[in-house]
Write a structure and sequence with these properties.
Shape: elongated
Number of domains: 3
Radius of gyration: 36 Å
CATH topology of the largest domain: Rossmann fold
Number of strands: 11
Strand content: 5-15%
Distance between the termini: 93 Å
Length: 366
């Protein structure tokens, strides 16, 4: 059925409704009064028909703007609901149900009051319904926490901090922009060390598109690399990938949005951003840091061991030389400046672990 035909049917029904209303109104009020004033039955009948016809036309005229108003209100309400997260929506519905239950109980008790008693249930529904929605939105985390704590199987996913390790495999893993551009997450997923759904938020995609369209050539290259890595993750990896449409208009920073999304999904953030790592840890959100993983799997080097390296540049201190292992670990060679561009055997003197990675100090063997 076409939309125009539906509108015509609604207009006709509205006109009929107005005409029926006019009929009942005129028959309830006017006939006896008009007959007492000397009107004949034909005159009263003509008045009745005239009022019904006028009401029918009025109904046709009112129907169009009324339908437009209903449609606009519906679209406005739909847009507001789409912007709400699933937990916000469920929290509001749950709060409304509780508020209406309270309103029915209190409204029934107040309905016995004289004069205003019959109106009290209606006002109670309005007041407690609004309070229920408001409190449901503000206390949604506590309500869902209370409900889910009744399920023992869900406790593992909700335990904060290190105790959530048992649920890591099935936890949603929210990817940030830096780890997508880095690309190592794709290689890690290929090995099978990362399980569970990968969640890519829409606001991260928007940030990647913005970087890819940057006037700076370096940023543009990084953004395009990130988009290429996304295509690889979605098409080539045998792992569940989900694009999340959840956004937060009240939060401007992407990092804060990532932490909020991970909290709502009871998931973890996958990143190699040091600052995001600290922010998430402060809010007790589990973080999988790619850099920390890379540092953890680097070969262990002990003082006294020997290795063969090539000195490639001068160090910061006098007479120091710098070499690198295949995995990028920096080796500071004492008195290595004179050995520039030479391949020499060195002995490890000490190993220092920093936030940036492992640094090895060695001396050249004569």
């Amino acid at each position: 059925m076409k939309l125009s035909l539906v509108k015509k049917i609604i207009r006709a029904l509205m006109g009929i409704l107005f005409a029926v209303g006019a009929f009942y109104l005129v028959t309830m009020i006017s006939p006896l009064l008009l007959l007492q004033m000397g009107w004949t039955q034909k005159m009263v009948g003509a008045l009745l028909v005239g009022c019904m016809l006028a009401s029918f036309i009025l109904g046709l005229l009112v129907a169009a703007p009324l339908m437009n108003f209903v449609v606009s209100v519906t679209k406005w309400l739909e847009s507001k609901l789409q912007k709400m997260s699933t937990q916000d929506l469920l929290g509001a519905v749950l709060g409304l149900i509780i508020g209406l239950i309270v309103a029915v109980i209190i409204g029934y008790a107040l309905s016995f009051l004289p004069i205003i008693g019959s109106y009290m249930p209606f006002f109670c529904c309005l007041i407690f319904g609004y309070l229920g929605i408001s409190l449901g939105l503000k206390k949604r985390d506590e309500m869902f926490g209370l409900l889910t704590n009744l399920k023992k199987d869900s406790n593992k996913l909700k335990t904060k901090g290190k105790n959530r390790a048992a649920g890591y495999c099935n936890m949603p893993k929210v990817l940030d922009t830096s780890v997508i551009i880095d690309g190592r997450i794709a290689d890690i997923c290929k090995t099978g060390f990362v399980e569970g759904p990968l969640v890519i938020p829409n606001f991260v995609l928007e940030e990647l598109r913005h970087i890819a369209d940057s006037s700076d050539s370096l940023k543009r290259a990084r953004g395009r690399r990130g988009l290429d890595m996304l295509n690889i993750i979605r098409k080539e990896l045998d792992i569940e990938v989900e694009i999340s449409n959840i956004d937060y208009d009240d939060i401007s920073e992407v990092d804060d949005k990532l932490v909020r999304l991970a909290q709502e999904l009871y998931g973890c953030v996958v990143t190699n951003d040091y600052n995001l790592n600290k922010v998430a840890a402060l809010q007790e959100v589990v973080v999988l840091n790619i850099n920390e993983l890379a540092n953890a799997i680097k070969p262990v080097v002990l003082p006294g061991e020997t290795m063969v390296v090539t000195v490639v540049k001068e160090g910061k201190e006098s007479n120091q030389g710098v070499a690198y292992l295949d995995d990028g670990t920096m080796i500071v060679v004492e008195n290595g400046r004179r050995l520039m561009n030479e391949t020499v055997q060195v002995s490890v003197t000490s190993v220092i672990q920093t936030n940036a990675g492992r640094m090895i100090f060695a001396r050249a063997l004569d």
